[in-house]
Specification:
The chain has a 5-stranded mixed sheet, sandwiched between helices. Strands 1-2 form a two-stranded antiparallel ribbon. About 65% of the residues lie in helices and about 5% in strands. It is rod-shaped and about 115 Å long. The longest helix is centred in the middle third of the chain and has 50 residues. Helix 7 packs across helix 11 and helix 14 packs across helix 15. It has 17 helices and 7 strands. The protein is of the alpha+beta class and about 400 residues long.
Length: about 400
């Protein structure tokens, strides 16, 4: 047995040259025996294609070779183990998870602990080999964790870029095929309902924004796609939102200021419509200082129409003005007169020469047709703007 000297000057016992040569000759057999043991004990390993099992064998061979080199010079442990993983197939982390890697390393180390001491020349060398396996196994474990952490960071960065492309495509109305394929790669169900929310980001730190939004979404068990686009945060929320408080809870992830939610659409392919309405509402919400948070883009139709949004004008005509006109002149006249007299029931009845109960009935009928109650101040504004927009559209020949 010979002795070595550490970087601190301490004299360390090392293995004899004969034992080191024996280890080098046995490295291939040890790697092969390790793979055989893995095939016997791990069903998922047996199901792997031969090419992937060969990649694992290469990794183990590099590890054994690194171990022998490390026995020559223990000061190089970290460098050698890192090189062992860098020399492995580049895509190994794609088809072997970190948990599975831990199982593989455990089996290999157990085999090394059994076989390596048999190659020692005496009892002292057996103790050195046993200790060496334990120490080197620790380095291998740290190297594996580092390798997978780097892969996870790279995948996370790639997913973030892909997610930003998906959200940007939704905002711009990209082709359905390319958008759906990218969203599917992120694990999104293309058939799930989608609702787009827009507002101010909670901070200037993108990772903090992502963490905040995903934390809120996880609490309500909903999938999300998000992107910070300049000074606005765009979030695509999956699932049904007509009932429950999912929108309200997710709105807490936004920064100060209004949050506008577009209409819920049946699938991600139609999410561009929700995004368009939400962004239009965000531009117009300043016209309604008392707007709730979040506010639906459909509730901002008057402000959007006044801001020049043709989609909002069309929706006011289609949802309010047209149903009232199709129901008959008396219904439209009653709503118009009720608004003109400031919502006073008796004054409206006198002006129309009808009983107040007739006015009540007609107003209830108007509410059923439009979803707007003329007695509510906000709904009264929507009705008034809708009727004006309808008349202007008819005058221009658009209706």
């Amino acid at each position: 047995m010979v002795e070595g000297v550490s970087s601190s000057g301490e004299v360390l016992p090392t293995l004899s040259k004969g034992t080191l040569r024996t280890l080098q000759r046995a490295s291939g057999d040890l790697a092969t025996a390790s793979v055989a043991e893995m095939e016997e004990r791990l069903p998922w390993f047996r199901r792997m294609p031969a090419e992937q099992r060969a990649g694992v064998l290469l990794l183990i061979q590099n590890g054994v070779a690194g171990f022998v080199s490390w026995l020559h010079d223990p000061e190089q442990a970290i460098r050698l183990t890192a090189e062992a993983f860098r020399a492995a197939p580049k895509d190994i982390s794609r088809w072997v998870s970190l948990r599975q890697t831990v199982e593989l390393v455990r089996i290999a180390l157990e085999l090394f602990e059994q076989q390596l001491p048999k190659l020692a020349a005496d009892e002292a060398e057996r103790a050195l080999l046993t200790e060496g396996v334990l120490r080197y196994g620790r380095e291998i474990a740290f190297s594996a964790a580092t390798s997978y952490a780097a892969a996870a960071e790279a995948r996370g960065a790639w997913d973030a870029r892909l997610e930003a492309l998906v959200v940007d495509g939704i905002v711009r109305g990209d082709a359905e095929e390319s958008l759906l394929s990218r969203a599917t790669a992120l694990g999104w169900d293309p058939a799930a309902e989608a609702t787009v929310l827009v507002g101010n980001p909670p901070s200037d730190d993108p990772p903090a924004v992502v963490f905040e939004v995903r934390s809120r979404a996880a609490r309500i068990s909903r999938p999300v796609l998000l992107s910070v686009q300049g000074s606005r945060l765009v979030v695509v929320l999956g699932g049904q939102t007509e009932t429950g408080d999912a929108l309200t809870r997710l709105a807490d992830a936004f920064g100060p200021g209004p949050v506008v939610a577009g209409p819920s659409v049946s699938s991600l392919a139609d999410a561009h419509r929700s995004a368009g309405d939400a962004l239009s509402g965000l531009r117009a919400v300043v016209g309604w200082p008392a707007a709730p948070r979040p506010v639906r883009s459909l509730d901002l139709l008057p402000e959007r129409a006044l801001a020049g949004d043709p989609e909002a004008e069309w929706q006011l005509v289609d949802r309010v003005a047209r149903p009232l006109e199709d129901a008959g002149g008396s219904l439209l006249e009653t709503v118009d007169t009720f608004l003109e007299v400031g919502g006073v029931l008796e004054a409206c009845a006198r002006k129309l020469f009808v009983h107040p109960n007739t006015v009540r009935y007609r107003l209830r009928r108007a509410t059923e047709l439009t979803g707007r109650n003329a007695n509510d101040p906000r709904d009264a504004l929507v009705l008034r703007v809708a009727l004006s927009v309808g008349r202007l559209a008819r005058a221009r020949g658009l209706w």
